[in-house]
Design goal:
- The complex is a heterodimer of chains A (about 160) and B (about 650).
- Chain A is an all-alpha fold.
- Chain B is an alpha+beta fold and about 650 residues long.
- In chain B, about 60% of the residues lie in helices and about 10% in strands.
- Chain B has 22 helices and twelve strands.
- In chain B, the strands form three sheets. In chain B, strands 1, 2, 3, 9, 10 and 11 form a six-stranded antiparallel beta sheet that branches. A four-stranded antiparallel beta sheet of chain B has the order 6-7-5-8, with helices on one face.
- Classes of the chains: A mainly alpha (about 160), B alpha+beta (about 650).
- Chains A and B meet through helix 5 and helix 7 of A and helix 17, helix 21 and helix 22 of B.
Chain lengths: ~160, ~650
């Protein structure tokens, strides 16, 4: 059947993989949003803290970037961007590529949200003690470890697939 | 850090303090503890002049206020960084010869600022009055006319939701001898004039009350509402004139701001001189003080003591004594002290970790931010800031550190072949249809696994150095066995495992050596892990210690972020370049590419510079410091000239 062919075509599955990888942006969006709410509260009391709180708010944004990265790597691998030609991929390879997108796609969401909460707490830390911004950043950066590991696994998995 | 104590005659105290302040290398301890001891309390009293300090602090408060007022009145461009101006001692003294003039200027500024405040209050009052008069502007009867021979005139308001016609009808039903006129309305209220014969006062007032009418009166105002409004406007104009005058006068005073800043610094120095006396003990004619000084300053300080014929003593601190900490490093390492300072001041018993991790921070930052063009931009920007602004302290260290990190970034960028990512090859293929290959030692995307192994290897070395420092500290504190059981056993285990595992492919003996190392290491850990515990704890402690291998595994894997972040920079850069090249060649394509490149690479630069900074710090704080570092130290705060606006330098 045509429809089944579309769905289980190797390229289709790989494209879905690229889309799933970008889901990490959901985590970043929520995380940066939560941090932004905390930052607005702090700046309402003390407008001079804008720069510091902005830096803290940016920290949960990396998961979205990692997701974009993996999505791009997938698209380049299957030839949809980068000027190469789009060849036919068999379904198994497509499934491998889809699997490679899952680590960053899923972990990115949850670690983005969690990092956003840690960043929000770090922002309140700066409000009370403006000199301790480094410590707040470290607290938030600890959460990012897991996004980094997931990114690594995604990249290694993707790299080991031959198209 | 050395300890000193000194006793001298009262007569030299003033000059001694001045000289010590000039040197700026001694920290005097507070003597509260000694005063609590009977022996000491019988001999000495606490020195200090609280009144003088309070007086100086009060004066400083006024000077600060004057400076703040002038800063707000100053509309000229403010510099990007606030730095202190370098002046010689003579210049400083010369400016303060005109002390009285400067003090008068300061008082003038404060007076002008107070006048401004009063005028602002008046403006607010008048504006409120105007707002209350505005609705009555069409009422032409003078406001003070509230009664005639036979009638009363009342002004008042009603909520705008009520129906005035019905109100009028209701009132007229009660009595005909009254009239109501609506002179104005707005969103909230109707403004009414009610005129009624005196003999129906009671009924009218009742009726008014029942219908939600509230009386309004303008005390002390004469003339109609319109006249009063005009009067208010005149008053406002008058005040605006006065405000302008004052602002002009303040603008003239801006020239004195610099002199007032000098006054601030002079007062601050005087205040500190008085304050430090509270850290001395005195008898009838002598005084005592003790404290700390860095080793390389001993010569200078001893000369000062000799100059004033003091009785002094400079010794090593006691074995278990804690002393304030000052970090001293060479010019490459010093900027990285900012990373240590952001975490915590090292304990006085610790060693300074900065010279050890400085080179590693340098390498890691470069690997994570790797791009030759970004590195070059960072170096140029930091170099310009350092040249143009006279930064001091932490900002100076941070900017200089980023300068070095830029250098490292550029080096790794050249190794990985990244110049704004793959911009050069994109430009080649899009505009010139040529394949330009950029030289590089190793392209990460070609073989990420090898690079990953390299990063993990670097990580293992970094960790081993951290563990080595811990072992060194154990030796230094006379606990060599701790080093063997805790550190060397892990060295054996961590090195032995891969050798055993992978050595098989090389040579059977290599594999056996690995196996022996692993077993020796593991057994040592198992047997000695619980040595500090009692009873069954000895065994469970060993098991717990061997479980620590998961900790080491996660530490090693943590270094994979070097690869991940390095890749992230490169891939985002190539994404930006690819997006910019989608418009094809030609002039339009070039314009679009330029715009996309500028915005995209700025974004990439910002995100990854910050990310590299945070993660390089995190690798030091968690993986490296975690092995041996004890924070909680107190920073060394010497007695020195605490000037905010000028830096008094010795003429060279």
């Amino acid at each position: 059947m045509e429809v089944l062919n579309w769905i289980f075509n190797g390229n289709s599955i790989a494209m879905v993989g690229a889309a799933v990888a970008c889901l990490a942006g959901v985590g970043s969006a929520i995380g940066v949003g939560v941090a932004g709410q905390a930052a607005a509260g702090v700046v309402a009391e003390d407008p001079t803290q804008f720069g510091k709180t902005l830096i803290m708010q940016a920290l949960p944004g990396t998961q979205g970037i990692y997701g974009l990265l993996v999505a791009f790597l997938i698209l380049m691998k299957i030839g949809f961007i980068g000027g190469g030609s789009v060849g036919a991929i068999d379904s198994v390879t497509g499934a491998y590529i889809f699997a490679a997108s899952l680590p960053i796609g899923i972990v990115g969401i949850f670690s983005g949200i969690a990092q956003g909460k840690a960043a929000a707490a770090g922002i309140m830390l700066i409000a009370k003690r403006p000199g301790e911004i480094a410590k707040g950043m470290i607290f938030a950066a600890m959460v990012e470890t897991y996004a980094v590991l997931a990114l690594l696994v995604s990249i290694i998995m993707l790299n080991s697939v031959t198209v | 850090m050395k300890k000193f104590s000194v006793i001298a005659l009262d007569s030299v105290k003033e000059n001694l303090v001045v000289d010590l302040m000039d040197l700026g290398v001694t920290e005097l301890n507070s003597q509260d503890e000694k005063m609590a001891e009977m022996e000491w309390a019988a001999l000495v009293r606490k020195d200090g002049n609280e009144n003088e300090v309070t007086k100086l602090e009060g004066l400083l408060g006024r000077v600060d206020l004057a400076i703040k007022v002038l800063e707000e009145a100053d509309t000229s461009k403010k510099p990007l960084f606030k730095t202190r101006k370098a002046v010689t001692r003579e210049q400083f003294k010369n400016v303060l010869l005109n002390r009285e003039t400067i003090e008068k200027e300061m008082e003038d500024v404060i007076a002008l600022s107070n006048d401004l405040k009063t005028l602002k209050n008046s403006t607010n009052k008048i504006e409120t009055t105007m707002a209350s008069l505005k609705p009555w502007v069409s009422y032409s009867v003078p406001l003070e006319l509230q009664e005639t021979k036979t009638t009363y005139i009342t002004m008042g308001v009603m909520p705008s939701i009520s129906d005035v016609t019905r109100f009028k009808d209701n009132l007229n039903a009660i009595t005909n001898l009254c009239d109501i006129e609506v002179v104005g309305s707005d969103d909230e209220l109707h403004y009414l004039i009610v005129m009624y014969y005196k003999n129906v006062e009671e009924e009218v007032l009742d009726g008014l009350r029942q219908n939600g009418f509230s009386k309004v009166s303008f005390k002390d105002m004469k003339g109609s509402a319109a006249e009063n409004l005009a009067l208010c406007r005149n008053q406002l104009d008058e005040i605006a004139n006065q405000v302008e005058n004052i602002q002009l006068k303040l603008a003239e005073k801006i020239n004195s701001k610099e002199n007032i800043e000098y006054l601030h610094d002079e007062l601050n120095i005087k205040k500190d001189r008085q304050k430090v006396r509270a850290r001395m003990l005195k008898t009838g004619h002598t005084f005592y003080a003790d404290g700390w000084l860095p080793e390389d300053a001993v010569g200078d300080v001893e000369n000062v003591f000799k100059k004033y014929k003091c009785c002094y003593e400079v010794t090593e601190p006691d074995k278990e004594e804690e002393f304030p900490v000052l970090l001293r490093n060479n010019s490459f390492v010093t900027p990285f002290e900012s990373v240590t300072a952001l975490y915590s001041v090292p304990n006085s018993k610790n060693i300074d970790p900065t010279p050890i991790f400085a080179i590693w921070y340098f390498i890691f930052y470069g690997m994570m931010f790797s791009d030759a063009a970004y590195g070059l931009i960072m170096m140029i920007a930091c170099g310009l800031v350092l040249k143009k602004f006279r930064l001091e302290g932490m900002p100076h260290k941070l900017v200089k550190m980023f300068f070095y990190c830029g250098l490292s970034t550029a080096i790794w960028g050249v190794i990985f072949g990244g110049y704004f990512g793959d911009l050069i090859s994109i430009i080649g293929t899009t505009f010139f249809n040529k394949e330009i290959s950029v030289p590089s030692v190793f392209v990460p995307l070609d073989d990420p696994i090898s690079l990953l192994v390299f990063c993990l290897g670097l990580g293992i070395i970094h960790l081993f150095i951290g563990m080595g420092v811990s072992a060194y500290m154990s030796f230094r504190e006379g606990r060599p066995l701790d080093a063997v059981f805790d550190i060397f056993s892990w060295y054996l285990l961590i090195i032995g495992l891969p050798i055993w595992y992978l050595g098989g492919s090389l040579n059977a003996t290599v594999s056996t050596v690995g196996l022996i190392m692993t077993v020796v290491g593991a057994v040592t850990i198992l047997l000695t892990g619980g040595r500090k515990k009692k009873g069954i704890g000895k065994i469970t402690g060993g098991l717990g210690a061997i479980y620590g291998i998961t900790g080491y595994l996660s530490d090693i894997l943590s270094y994979s972020r070097l690869l991940a972040l390095g890749l992230a920079t490169g891939v985002i850069a190539s994404v930006v370049n690819t997006m910019g090249s989608l418009a094809g060649g030609g002039i339009l394509g070039a314009v679009i590419l330029t715009v996309v490149v500028i915005f995209g690479h700025t974004f990439n630069f910002a995100i990854n510079a910050l990310g590299a900074f945070v993660h390089a710090c995190r690798l030091q704080y968690v993986e490296f410091f975690g092995k041996f570092f004890e924070g909680g130290g107190i920073a060394f705060q010497p007695l020195k000239k605490n000037t905010k606006y000028v830096d008094i330098v010795n003429k060279n």
